[in-house]
Amino acid sequence: MKGLEIVELFYETYGKVMLETEFPDKLSDIAVGLVGEGSECLGYDDEISKDHDFDPGFCIWLNKKDYDEFGFKLERAYAKLPKEFMGLKRSPLSPSGGNRRGVILIDEFYTRFLGAANAPDSVKRWLYTPSSALLTASCGKVFKDDKGEFSAVREVLKKGYPEDIRLKKIAAHTAMMAQSGQYNYQRLIKREESGSAQLAVFEFVRHCISVIYLLNNAYEPFYKWAYRGMRDLKVLGDLELSLIGLTELGNSNGQAMEKCEIIDDIARLVIDEFKEQRITDATCNNLDTHAFSVTDKIKDPTLRNMHVMEGI
Questions:
Q1: Tally of domains in the chain
Q2: Residue 16 lies in a domain
Q3: 135 lies in the same domain as 74
Q4: Which domain holds residue 274?
Q5: Are residues 167 and 152 in the same domain?
Q6: By mean pLDDT, which of 49-63, 77-91, 258-272 is the weakest?
């Protein structure tokens, strides 16, 4: 049974009863669920996940007014719930805040990940808020939110990037793919700089993964879940093995040639998808040319006139 399912069952078994019994007149003011950090919020948890920060507790979100009115009482009621459920022990809560579970202020929750209590509302915030933070604030599941105050921010995030922002980021990461994979890797091999050549490959792979998520209009998770998340993507998610192969191959003459072929094949597939989505007018196999062509599709003049690599 996945962690999120266990948490929801714990809420249905004990938490819901507690709220209905002790806070019957406040039910519409209380949002409940599990959102935030942790592999279980992404659905990626396994047996290894259980070695830390893995428990059946859930989140209770309140606005400031409601928290001031009955938040302390709710915290005490939550603390009295069973300390163990389905073999999982609940983690102790810190009295100084910063908890992943328990009673949490809505504004504080979103500010922790987004830098503000609301969804990004400017070009700057959309461009520079880390994709993993956007994902963290919009993953998991809300079990109950009658008022809709907590879910309102999530609904904005779940729509994905505004199109101009998506295009700007695609252009920036594509330019980096071109620089690292199509240009610098071969030059570093010729210079017999094997270590730096490998770093160039890593950069190509890293930025290619970002492009793949953007082509799916999906937020890229924290790096350790990047490949795992790709398996759920419909567009180019099957490039995982090719990208892994690039990082695992050495840099002998034969291997370097093979890597160049793989880089060209990946570039071709990415460009084909650009054409499928009609975000480029270029016809060559040069990723740098396509990066500028994607930039030309941006409607916002401020974004369009930024440096092509701005926004990574």
A1: 2
A2: yes
A3: yes
A4: 163-304
A5: no
A6: 49-63
- SS3 for 186-220, per residue? HHHHHCCCHHHHHHHHHHHHHHHHHHHHHHCCCCC
**How do residues 168-223 score in pLDDT, each as one tens digit?**
999 999 999 999 999 999 999 999 999 999 999 999 999 999 999 999 999 999 99
| Same domain flag for 31 and 149 | yes
- The model's pTM is 0.94
Per residue in 95-132, pLDDT tens?
656 678 999 999 999 999 999 999 999 999 999 999 99
Percent of the chain with pLDDT over 70: 98
Q: Which two tokens stand for residue 70?
A: 């009955």
